[in-house]
Design brief:
alpha+beta; binds magnesium ion; binds adenosine monophosphate; 19 helices
Length: 505
Amino acid sequence: MLKIIKVITSSIMLENALGIDFQNTFARDLKGLYRESSSSKYPSSEILLLNDSLASELGIKLKNLHSKDGVDIFSGNKKHLNSITLAQAYSGHQFGRFNPNLGDGRALLLGEVLNKKGELKDIQLKGSGPTPFSRRGDGKSALGPVLREYLISESMNALNIPTTRALAAVKTGEPVERETYLPGGVMTRVASSHIRIGTYEYASLQNDNELIKRLADYSISRHFPDTGNVENPYLALFAAICNQQASLIANWMSIGFIHGVMNTDNMSISGETIDYGPCAFMNTYNPETVFSSIDVQGRYAFQNQPSILTWNLTRLAETFIPLVDNNKDESVKLLTEVLQLIKPVYTNYWLSIMRSKIGLSKEEHNDIELIAQFLEIMAEEKADFTLSFRMLSKALIGDKSKIKKLFSNSRRLDGWIMLWQERVSQENIAVETIANSMDKINPLYIPRNHKVEEALDEAVFKNNMRSFNIMLSVMQNPYDEVESNASFAEAPINEDKSYKTFCGT
Ligand code: AMP
Ligand code: MG
């Protein structure tokens, strides 16, 4: 009897260990789009990072988060009692080529949790061992990519760009076999959902209209409830997804972010940045910048991201044909009308952000040319993207020395600054006020590649999280200048020309 009571109480304790009341709505509503799976056990796991502020948004008590159960749950050693663990199915166009059978090969959804705002968030382990979708992979992750995703996704969040978040990073204590043996890691990712364009591609491939309808209904209720109340909810859903994605890519373009692997399986329909594999921030402004070692054709180069947005959404549109109208031609016509809006909608988002970056709040006809000219000079004079925008505010209040240092030949810059100041004067707002607001949108600190590598090297190979933790805290306040953080604002001396990133496998 005593033994039974012990088992029951320990189960209850486990169930409440993190205070998570998993909802398992994906498991309940989307049968056919996942396979139940479980995690590998890593008995020598050690927690390296826990995100306290995110945990409290999710209603997880810090005491529980930092307990032994926390380690066990975020390393996959223990299953939270009310969690139905599953690997999601999806297909995807990878570098333009369709692969019908992808799916979570190294990730495991623990379930969804309602955060304090009443929003449903997925909690997922990444690197937690093989699943039915692992194909030839080991389902594991090296620690380096885990820490990289943690740092860059949290930086993106601080830069106010929609993104998945990082709740925990674990060192498994077991090596993973890549080109060499590397320390293994597990990342706990929090997302508005993990529904991708590739999820729709997979559902569409099953030739089961009921399944894709269920996926669309789930997407409406979870992400775009307003679209459920209009005449053609599925067309409205498609338009809402296009709108969110256009806004996201405009954000990336405003900050010099290169995702690196914009395959349809890496594009979340909620409009969050997801799957931080070979992504990187650009230093010197060159629209053709590519960092990913596998992107030999430059398909996902910085300047191509807006056209890839439309390409990807066209793949999504194809899956919506049976949903939008019973008449295929009518469906295609309606979806094409929405697709044609993506470019102007994207441009509007981009223009609006770029206006703010150069201190404009009114809309004038020539603003787009003014912004384009600044970018053109920046490219020709090989100036740093982030610092060029940041130092504009200083120029506005009379100190042009900092921005001039960034441009190899500053004569053209002088000419542009004159035109720009004239335009700013039409705002009829004090320049100090404008400069202040510019500093709230143009970051000083971004996760620069050379600093990221330094921090990762120390963390992974020297077992020292000090540099990583300092960098993470600097990136949490990207807009506020702090003298002791000066090295994080500096561009690399060699312009990053030979920098290469790798998929996080
Ligand atoms: P990614 O490049 O991370 O977007 O992954 C593309 C596909 O490869 C997804 O289906 C992943 O689940 C799968 N994958 C990546 N790495 C592994 C791995 N180590 N083991 C199994 N599957 C993997
Ligand atoms: Mg992926």
